[in-house]
Design goal:
heterodimer, A: mainly alpha, Rna Polymerase Sigma Factor, Chain: A, B: 475 residues, Four Helix Bundle (Hemerythrin (Met), subunit A), 3 domains, 4-stranded mixed beta sheet, 44% helix
Chain lengths: 193, 475
């Protein structure tokens, strides 16, 4: 469930509580973000234990460096997602590079492609989880339930026009997962979606 | 978001992100579990790809169904109209001649077609619309670009991985963190079981849909040595936990979740019934957030009140518990009801961590002497025959409660007076039970007669203790 509606106040207070060294705050942080962190890490690494490891690293990092997060820069959720993505991709690249140097098959290009694919897939997951609920619901019906847009409109109780609009907009948002993060460009985890 | 570390260097390799479109498109097709796309391949490539090679029918699905008439409207070379004379049907009326025949190709405006691109990319339009869009893509560069982009995006849709997080991971992650940076405001050890059990239950609720939230649950407990039950729903159980946890909240000076609603008595059952009655509708999933918020607030507040708060007392209406025992009691109830819920929706649910289970058993064992005394006064436990009243603090006649399994241990229960101390020398009976079985007994989910217990010694004492354990249960 996307919790992006949480007010920035929650983010600010959480950061203060973590900085204060409140163990209970760490538990709350975990309860809110563990499935996000673990899910993204698992999408990148495709391995349960590796995802567990990234989850440990992410929460340890936030707990040890609560000041690294600046509430003015955006939601805590997207900051945590970015951190997870970075650590998971680092881990993937390190694992794959090690396999390559030990005489594994494939080329550096294969490695880069694999890293890129995993990275885009994770970003896409995050975009879907964070997009407005009406868009996600429309995509869910049309893609996973295989309803056509007229049925989707009827299921959602909206006009066919609106159903078409939601499907198109949802895919447009999702397609930004491919976008390179040019300096200053809104990144995939910017929380703007 | 101008932290330069936010994105990796690999992003820079993503020139435009549209390279290798062929692979991505086929990936997208596969992504739909092999569902046949009514228009074969991808935009651009697909228009003269698999769709065209399907045969003379043109780029239509060809698997029958309501859109078969689409086979009569190939987009490239319209078939000649069947002559009226050839099919034996009556001649059309004059008005009828003014109308196009039923399978006429759709002619749609650019804007309409553009608006259809999302639905088209998802294979969610009619066959006619699909054909119209694909025709248009051959002529309109901007629509073709977008179509390609959206089709690639479809390939990124994946079923959310609803991997249930291992509840043990929470403990390991949090402990790892606290080892690396010791907390300045730690969580009291006696609050840890409540923290863990509420987190486990919340994780169980995570993926519940309406069907699960409204699944019937039967709350079971023992009253006057009889099995009793009360029907509610999953949401009703969470409402029950919310209102009873509220007793601790009130004792700590937090808001009462009952708010304006007044209960007939400040007991768990009366508060729960009052809360259920106060709403015209049965509880819904909306009860989850206030329950979870309150449980977080409780853990947070007891962390701040420190060790001294253990002396605070929580009134339950007809009895009281010290704060640290009340938090253990709430952890126990949370687990017991989580099991009720899991059973109702047919999910697996495992017992608490052994060290938490051990504390819960210890609480029940510590409560037993006073409960025995109360039952004796009410004539429910065996009378004073053979009793040896001893001064408070002195060893008295005892029953050895041996709890097997992880989280188990041994407890000596003084039988004759809550003031006495358990004594191995004066052991008159020995009961051995599995830890989870003992908890089910104390929760009123197993009757004393049915509890699988190994028994040696004074039968009456054993019976009294098992019934006393069952009587610890309440709604």
């Amino acid at each position: 469930m996307a919790k992006k509606d949480a007010p920035p106040r929650w983010d600010r207070k959480m950061q203060q509580r973590l900085a204060r060294g409140e163990a209970a705050a760490l538990g709350e942080l975990y309860d809110r973000f563990a499935s996000l962190v673990h899910g993204l890490a698992h999408r990148v690494l495709g391995d349960e234990r590796a995802a567990d490891g990234i989850t440990r690293e992410v929460f340890a990092h936030v707990w040890e460096h609560p000041d690294a997060y600046d509430p003015k820069q955006g939601p805590l959720r997207s900051w945590v997602a970015t951190l997870t993505h970075r650590l998971a991709v680092q881990r993937l690249r390190a694992t794959e590079t090690a396999a390559l140097t030990q005489g594994g098959q494939g080329s550096t290009e294969d490695l880069e492609r694999k890293v890129r694919t995993a990275s885009v897939a994770a970003r896409a997951d995050y975009i879907v989880q964070s997009m407005p609920v009406p868009l996600r619901a429309a995509l869910e019906l049309a893609y996973f339930q295989r309803r056509d847009y007229r049925q989707t409109a009827a299921d959602l109780g909206v006009t066919e026009d609106e159903a078409r609009r939601r499907l198109r907009l949802g895919l447009q948002l999702l397609s930004t997962a491919h976008q390179a993060a040019a300096p200053g460009a809104p990144p995939g985890y910017g929380g703007a979606v | 978001m101008n932290d330069p570390n936010r994105f990796e260097a690999y992003d820079e390799h993503e020139d435009g992100g549209h390279g290798g479109s062929g692979d991505a498109d086929r990936e997208g097709e596969r992504g739909r579990d092999g569902q046949q796309s009514p228009y074969g391949g991808a935009p651009g490539a697909g228009a003269h790809g698999s769709g065209g090679s399907d045969g003379p029918g043109g780029p239509t699905n060809g698997n029958g169904g309501p859109h078969d008439q689409g086979a009569d409207q190939p987009p490239r070379i319209p078939l000649p109209r069947a002559s009226v004379e050839d099919n034996g049907r009556p001649l059309p009326t004059l008005e009828g001649l003014g109308e196009p025949p039923p399978p006429a190709p759709l002619v749609l405006e650019h804007n309409v077609l553009k608006a259809l691109l999302g639905a088209w990319a998802l294979a969610a339009c009619s066959a006619e619309e699909t054909v119209a869009v694909e025709d248009h893509l051959g002529d309109c560069g901007s629509c073709a670009d977008e179509a390609l982009r959206l089709r690639e995006a479809v390939g990124l849709l994946q079923r959310p991985e609803s991997l249930d997080l291992d509840p043990g991971l929470r403990t390991r992650v949090l402990e790892g963190c606290l080892d690396r940076r010791p907390p300045r405001i730690p969580m009291p050890e006696w609050a840890a079981p409540y923290d863990a059990e509420t987190a486990r239950l919340d994780a169980l609720l995570q993926d519940f849909g309406d069907a699960e939230w409204h699944a019937p649950v039967r709350l079971r407990w023992f009253q006057a040595d009889e099995a009793t039950s009360r029907r509610t729903t999953v949401a009703g159980v969470i409402a029950h936990l919310l209102t009873v946890d509220g007793l601790v909240a009130v004792a700590l000076g937090l808001d009462d979740p009952l708010g304006e609603v007044s209960a007939e008595a400040p007991t768990p059952a009366a508060r729960t019934e009052a809360y259920w009655r106060a709403s015209h509708y049965p509880p819904t999933r909306s009860v989850r957030a206030p329950w979870r918020e309150q449980s977080h607030d409780l853990v947070r507040t007891v962390s701040f009140t420190g060790g001294g708060a253990g002396k605070l007392s929580v009134p339950y209406g007809d009895f009281e518990l010290p704060l640290h025992d009340a938090m253990l009691d709430r952890a126990f109830e949370c687990w017991v009801h989580a099991e009720d819920i899991a059973e109702a929706v047919d999910y697996p649910y495992v017992p608490p961590a052994p060290r938490h289970l051990n504390r819960m058993i210890d609480l029940a064992a510590r409560m037993l002497p006073a409960v025995l005394a109360g039952r004796r006064q009410e004539g429910l436990a065996s009378p004073a025959r053979g009793r040896h009243l001893v001064p408070a603090g002195e060893p008295g006649r005892s029953l050895r409660l041996e709890i097997e399994g992880l989280g188990g241990g041994e407890w000596l229960i003084p039988l004759d007076s809550p003031g006495a101390v358990g004594s191995a020398e004066q052991e008159v009976a020995h009961v051995a039970l599995d830890g989870v079985e003992f908890c089910r007994l104390a929760a009123g989910h197993v009757s004393p007669a049915e509890a699988a217990a190994g028994q040696v010694g004074d039968r009456e004492a054993i019976r009294d203790v098992l019934f006393a354990a069952a009587s610890l249960s309440r709604m």
